[in-house]
Amino acid sequence: xxxxxxxxxxxxxxxxxxxxxxxxxxxxxxxxxxxxxxxxxxxxxxxxxxxxxxxxxxxxxxxxxxxxxxxxxxxxxxxxxxxxxxxxxxxxxxxxxxxxxxxxxxxxxxxxxxxxxxxxxxxxxxxxxxxxxxxxxxxxxxxxxxxxxxxxxxxxxxxxxxxxxxxxxxxxxxxxxxxxxxxxxxxxxxxxxxxxxxxxxxxxxxxxxxxxxxxxxxxxxxxxxxxxxxxxxxxxxxxxxxxxxxxxxxxxxxxx
Length: 256
Hints:
alpha/beta, 8 helices, six-stranded mixed sheet, Rossmann fold
């Protein structure tokens, strides 16, 4: 078992130390340690109810930890809300992606961060500028789109994931959290999402890849953190475990 990122020298982009989270008498997390470096994909794995979602909600400001400390780029921080998490450079792509199907790629890309032009007291959306920037930002991580004005509802699942990943990269995320990004995708679409994930890593982001699918995460992750019953099982490098080992660690079976 290793605590060092492969190729991840320097200060981790995020370090969570001894995180405890209790809901009344229920302990959802019990002293969990977790780190992610830049240029690294960290697989976060565990069965349903293992605590991985709670850990991410603590990191993104949805839950306040009962005890423990979070560090961003080596500095201790408090994350009382998702807004603060976003300001710290933590972007999350949830399963539902938080995209609006009836709006264009551009409008979704800049949702809540629209570029406007002003003439006196009158302001309007600068669609040409946003079209240009969204297309360039997506191309920067290897994503080609037909038109920035195309409605998101017409895109495939993999293409929608690409918009969410590109948006996080463009707006300066340090850390990108992908929540079950390959769920319900075809083989071809899954391959695209895994490729986009590697592009994000190559551009300097730390990536947390949360999934039940060991086969998918094993293709892209540098390390794997496994949680079971709210406790840390361990963090392992790719050279330490294979897919069968990871599956056994998730379920609690003996690793042969």
